Structure formats: C-alpha cells, structure tokens
Amino acid sequence: MKKILLTLLTFFMIAMCTSAQVRVCGAYLEGDGPVNSPYIKNGTVTWNSTSRTLTLDNAVIDYSSNSPQDGISPICVTEDATIVVKGDCRLSTTGYVAIAADSYNSKNVTISGSGTLTTSSSWIDIFLVVTHLTIQDITLNTVKGIANNSEGSGVGLTFDNVQATIRGEVMRIGDGITFKDCAIIYPEDAYIDISGYGYGIYYGNHRIPDQIIISRTGGIHGDVNGDGEVNIADVNAVVDVILGGASNPNADVNNDNEINIADINAVIDIILSGAPAPLSIETITVNGVSFKMVQVEGGTYTMGARDDDTEAFNSEKPAHKVTLSSFYIGETEVTQALWVAVMGDNGSNPSHFTGDLNRPVDQVSWNQCQDFITKLNQMTGKQFRLPTEAEWEYAARGGKMSKGYKYAGSNDLNEVAWWGYEKGGTCVTYGTCPVASFKPNELGLYDMTGNVFEWCQDWRGAYSSEPQINPTGPETGTNRIVRGGGWEFDAKFCRLSYRRDYVPNGNYDCNGLRLAM
C-alpha cells in the first residue's frame, strides 16, 4: 500500500513540478535576486542562476491553503542545484511536500550551510525522484521525513556533518543512505534496515513516537553499513564490496585506499576489541547561547610521544599506557559568546581578538577559567570542569575511533587547524578565527589542534613509564598544562603529544579553554 501511495505521489509531483527548473511558492525563478512572495513571512530567499543556488536567510515560508494540491511544494527543484541555509529557516505547507527534487535525469541536489532547516508538510517533507540529495553541515528537523521513489545507480541520500532530528520515515533511498560525521536523532524504536521495500529508517510500531532520543550516530570506525554498530554485518558488507556486489567507501576500514581482506581483518579487530558505542551529544543553552558536549567512550591508549619521534621534546616522553573512564568534552573551544553569556556583558569579554563572538575566548588565565566554570555550574546544575591532560590527548586522538593521525583529525595540518601565523600555516591574519572553521577529528571535535591552546586541569609534571588509570597529574606545582597548539605556532607545536605550561594567573592571547564533564 505504501509503495502504491508513493507511486501516485510521484506522478502528481512530476505534473506539478517539472514545468520549471526551480520554483518557490509557485513562482518560476527566471531572474537573479530576491524572491518576492506573500508566503515568505520572514527573512529572504535569493536565487542565483549562474551558480544555480537558492539561498534561504532566516527565511520563514508558510505555504498553506485550503487545498493541499495548491500548497504542494514551497520549494521545487528539477535540475542540479544547491539550497544554502543561513540562520533559522522554516518551511511549512498544508500540501504534500515541503521540498521536492524531481527529475528522471539523475540530478544532484545539495542542501548545505551553517543554519537550521525545519520542514513540515502533510505527507513527506522532502521527496526525491531520480535525484541524489546531499545534506551537508546544517541542522535539519523534519516532521514527515524523507522519501526517494526511485532506484538505480547514483541515486541516494548523503548526510555529511549533519545534526538532524528525523520525525517520519526515511524510505526507499535508491543506492542507500550514507552517514558521515553526523548526529542523527530519531525515535527510540527506529532501526535502519534493507527490506523488500527498500533501504531506509523504519519504526518498530509504525507510528511516530512522541519522544525522541539520540539512538544512532554516524562516524563510527568500522561501521561499514551505517547502522550505528560494528558487528558481523559490517564484515559481510566489506565482503559484498570485494565480490563486486556493492559500492561503499566506508568499506576501506584501514584507510589504505584499497578494499580487500585487510579491511575484513580490520573490522574483526574492532569487534574483538569491543566495538565503540554510538556517540551521545548533549546540548546545553545558557542565556540564549547553545553549546554541545560530546561523549567520549573510555578506553586504553598510548599517551605521549614515541622514542623515535624526532620532533618530540623530552617532556613528551616516555610514552605510556593510560586507561580512562568515559567522559564528555566540548565540541568546540569555549566561545566569546558563551563566556559573555555566563559572566555577563559588562566588559566581561577578556579576549584580545574580538569582533566575532564565535571566536574562542582568549587571554584567559587558568584561575579565570575556574571562576567561569563555577558560575556555569551554578547556572546549569551540571559539573563542568577542565579536562585532565590525559583526557584531552585521548579525545584529540579520536578516542576509540582514532585513526592514528599526527594532528587532531588529519595528517594534513591545513585541513584541521588555524595555525602558523607568518610561518606558512593557514593563519593568514593576526589572531584567532571562529571555532569550527576547519574539519573536525574522528569524534566530531573541532580545533583540538590550533586556534588557541587549551588549559587542562593538571599541574605540570614529568611522565612515568608505568601504566596509569584516570591520571590527574601531580598534586602540586607551579605551572598548569595547556594543549593543542595555537594560531601563531609552528606545526611541531600542534602535534597531539606536545605539552606546554603557564602560570595559572597568566593571561596570554594564545590560551583559551574547552569544557569537560
């Protein structure tokens, strides 16, 4: 029955949508510039025909009428196009679909940006026909879900670095669904499955539950089939690729640019060592400023630098085994916006590099960080703190998802860090840059390398070769540890094992902080 309804909807959508390449609230987009419509209640919608880009800037579109057919689709695309989302954008309709991407010519549509997109319709919020949809870097909230009534090569759905709340089913997505560095939230009884109907997210009781939880997340090392777990099904998924029955870049588990028996062994090693659990991400809002804390599953790793690391300083040695319990750590460095939200706006921003509140707070001493954390805990009822040095390095290395990179998230420092002012790095302007401007590491943490050094809880002390469990450093000392490299420092100071220290009452424009709890 569901398949019949989707087929009927497909024919109806084609009739309504294919007469124009891009349409907004029934208006054909023939020229460049702002789109004018009485249905656009707030913000702006702008079309650029050269780049084929539709930009939604805090746009609120309510395309409602007495007839669902009249309000079929606030946005309809039948060509290769990009929809850019800025700010808080909302599309609602009494019609069947909020966004339609319909073609029989294998089109590619991308929804991307830095904002939040919330969609609501009477049938399926985002509907695709022979279209591959990439959703990238935005926060997505759907009421009725996503469907693709098409099959074939190159037709599917990609979530890339997306925070998404999916209400409603995600159905029949052609070649499949790909999750990359995502936090996907959907009902507690949801599961990803391949059935006779197609590849999708389904629900055990076939209804939309009132409560949703974080039940799956992408980006798990070894999760070849993208179901949020690492098990024998992922071994089978690699075998399918080797035998030529599927195409799946996630099957290159050992990251050697080949898919072979070594990847099967890599999955088995992960299973035998205890497959990492899906990430839990907690969002906290203080005086209108939101920030995210990412769960880091505990485990054992080698802390410090190897003896043969020619760039390493003596303070980074000897390398030693450390076992940690699970903890949470900030997705980003503490921003100036969060600091002001907690400490008040009467001259409370101590940063040297101002002008953008999304920059990390800088020029804060260790002692000031303690004052900030004390007040934050009073406001939220949480138990925030600075990370220990061992926690910081474990999280920067990617925890159980670590791929063994030299820097936090890559062997190419330019991919993940704002570093090296006047030293050949990415930092081309004097000072810090907004957080999350570069790629995250394996845990989805930004700027663990570069931007500002981050205070740790520990006093400075020498390493021991003995294995340790949840180490907290010396009981006393003169200087506190900072980690991570900074905007003005060379690459060797951005390595994951590099240690630096300052007096706890020192204010330096290269130092900031990241929260733990």
Number of helices: 7
Biggest sheet layout: 19 strands, mixed
The CATH first-level class of the largest domain comes to Alpha Beta
Shape: globular
Unreliable stretches, pLDDT < 50, 5 or more residues? Answer: 1-16, 188-200, 202-219
Beta-strand percentage? 25-35%
Task: Please provide a written account of the structure.
This protein has three domains: 2-213; 232-273, no CATH class; 281-512, paralog of FGE (formylglycine-generating enzyme) (Alpha-Beta Complex), CATH 3.90.1580.10. Helices cover 15% and strands 31% of the residues. It has helices at 2-17, 232-242, 261-273, 336-343, 366-380, 389-396, 413-416; strands at 22-24, 27-28, 33-34, 40-48, 53-63, 75-77, 81-86, 88-93, 99-113, 116-120, 126-136, 139-142, 146-150, 157-160, 163-166, 170-173, 177-180, 183-187, 190-194, 199-203, 212-213, 281-286, 289-296, 299-303, 320-324, 327-330, 453-459, 468-469, 480-483, 500-502, 511-512. Helix 2 packs antiparallel against helix 3 (261-273). The two termini are 49 Å apart. Mean pLDDT is 82; it is low at 1-16, 188-200 and 202-219.
Write a concise keyword list for the protein shown above.
517 residues, paralog of FGE (formylglycine-generating enzyme), 3 domains, 19-stranded mixed sheet, four-stranded mixed sheet, 31 strands, 15% helix
